[in-house]
C-alpha cells in the first residue's frame, strides 16, 4: 500500500525506556533553564554547567536498565522488512534507535554519545566525559570538545535530505513529540501538502488544531508493534491499532 515512509520521533518514544521527556510533568525543562544548558550563549557563559548537564545524560544513557523498548524495535523491524523507501528522523539525542537496529536514521538534533571539535566540526565518539582536558585530535593545539547537539539558535542537521523525503513520502508518522519545536513541528504540513497520509502516535490526545489526518492515542511501545504489522501486511493504517 505505502511506498515511501518517513517517521519522526521525539522524546515520548524513549520515555518507556526511562529517559525523561522535555515538556511532560517533571520533564527536563522543568528542572533546567533552556537558555543555560541548550544555547550557544549559555555554553559561552558557563561551559562547566552545560558539560555537567550533558555528562549526566550520557551517564544515564549508559546505565543498566536504559534499553530500546518495543517501539524502537518495531521501527527497526519496519526498516528491515519494508519493501520501499524508508527514513527515520529523530529529534532525540539518545542512541536507542541505533541500539534497536535502525540504520536509515537522521539525528536532526545531534547525538549525546559524540563530541564535536568547535574549529573543524569533526565529531568524536565520547570515551570520557566533557571537560577542560577532553580535547579533539584533529587540531594542534587540541580544542575543547563541545557536545554534538543542536542548541536553540543553531541549524538542525540533515534538513536537505529531510525536506526531499517529506516531499516524496506517502506516509508520515510522528511518534511521541509535542510538536512545539520547529522545523520538526512543521514536517506534518509539508507531508500533508505533498499528499501523504499523516499519522500521529502520542500518549496525549490530539490538539484541537492538529494537522494530522489520524491520531492514535496511547503508549508508543504498545501501539507501534501492531502498527508496523499493519504496514508490513500492506494495509492502510486505521484507527484500530
Ligand atoms: P516533548 O517533551 O516536548 O514532548 C514529548 C511528547 O511525548 C509529548 O507530546 C507526550 O505526550 C509524548 N509522550 C510521552 N510519553 C509517551 C509514550 N510513552 N508514548 C507516546 N508518546 C508519549 O519532546 P519533543 O517533542 O521530542 O530539542 O521535544 C522536541 C525538542 O524540544 C527536543 O528535541 C529538544 C527539546 O527542547 C532541543 O534540545 C534542540
Short note summarizing the structure:
The protein is an alpha/beta fold. It has 10 helices and 9 strands.
Topology:
Elements (H helix, E strand, L loop, with lengths): L3 E6 L1 H5 L12 H4 L2 H4 L2 H6 L1 H16 L7 H12 L3 E6 L5 H5 L4 E3 L2 E7 L6 E3 L20 E4 L9 H10 L2 E5 L11 H7 L3 E6 L11 E4 L2 H13 L9
Parallel strand pairs: 1-2, 1-7, 2-3, 7-8, 8-9
Antiparallel strand pairs: 4-5, 4-6
Helix pairs in contact: 6-10, 8-9
Given as residue ranges, the uncertain stretches (5+ residues, pLDDT < 50) are none
- Major sheet: arrangement of strands: 3-2-1-7-8-9
SSE pattern: EHHHHHHEHEEEEHEHEEH
Number of distinct helices: 10
Radius of gyration: 18 Å
Molecules bound to protein: 2'-O-acetyl adenosine-5-diphosphoribose
Helix content: 25-40%
- Average pLDDT level: 96
Distance between the termini: 17 Å
Sheet/helix structural class:
alpha/beta
* Overall geometric form: globular
The biggest beta sheet, please? 6 strands, parallel
Number of strands: 9
What amount of the residues lies in strands?
15-25%
Q: How would you describe the overall organization of this protein?
A:
By secondary structure, the protein is α/β, with parallel strands linked by helices. 34% of the residues lie in helices and 18% in strands. The protein has 10 helices and 9 strands. It has helices at residues 11-15, 28-31, 34-37, 40-45, 47-62, 70-81, 96-100, 159-168, 187-193, 220-232, and strands spanning 4-9, 85-90, 105-107, 110-116, 123-125, 146-149, 171-175, 197-202, 214-217. The strands form 2 sheets. The protein has a 6-stranded parallel β-sheet with strand order 3-2-1-7-8-9, sandwiched between helices. Strands 5-4-6 form a 3-stranded antiparallel β-sheet. 38% of the residues are buried. It binds 2'-O-acetyl adenosine-5-diphosphoribose (OAD). Residues 10-12, 15-16, 21-24, 27, 38, 91, 109, 150, 152, 176-178, 180-181, 202-204, 219-220 line the site of 2'-O-acetyl adenosine-5-diphosphoribose.
